[in-house]
Amino acid sequence: MKRLLLFAMAIIFAMQLSAQNSTIIVGDTSSTTTSSNIPMYCYYQNSYSQSIYPATSLEPGQITSISYYHTYTPYNNGIIKIYMKEVTDTTLTNYLPGTDFVQVFEGPINLINGVVTYNFPAPFEYTGEGNLLVAVIRDGTNYQNNHTFKTAQGIGSSVYQRSDTQEYNINTPPTPYSPAESIVPVTMFTMIPIGAEFCYRPVNISVTNQTTDGATI
How far is CA 202 from the centre of its chain? Predict the structure, then answer.
């Protein structure tokens, strides 16, 4: 019985260790080109951006986090909501409707001068059959100037809007502030690739009936 218990525990630990994440960075992290509009605009209380990432810049898999490259002092006012979906559109000319977006994150923006990462409570399944559309909504109570993010030129496209009075909703996109720009934020995606040889880690593990020579897992 003791051997069986040790064997089961070994399998569990192996499963936990074998799922290997990979990172994909869209754009150049050394870029000196920045934008104060995407993925969020901090000089107004609220903002809403959409950015489309070509499938050729990514790979299929489970997206578990997203990171942006912020280039100003820390700022912590506001809640950020991040949504994703796959689309057949290759560029943006306007906001795309949001009825079938998947919300992957909601929490404090917690901007630092450097890489800002948002870990998803549950992964987003990206098949790679379409392009990836990422929507970012910021709900704030004040504003601060000069917050910028590194951008990738000529990769996908983005639209944005900002307001001190309007709170944005994923299901009712506003009119863009200006025509779409041929840029996306320099973005790092953490992923578990499809086709990788791994086992998903076990969840909701419980141990009962513990005795001196065994247990139920």
Answer: 23
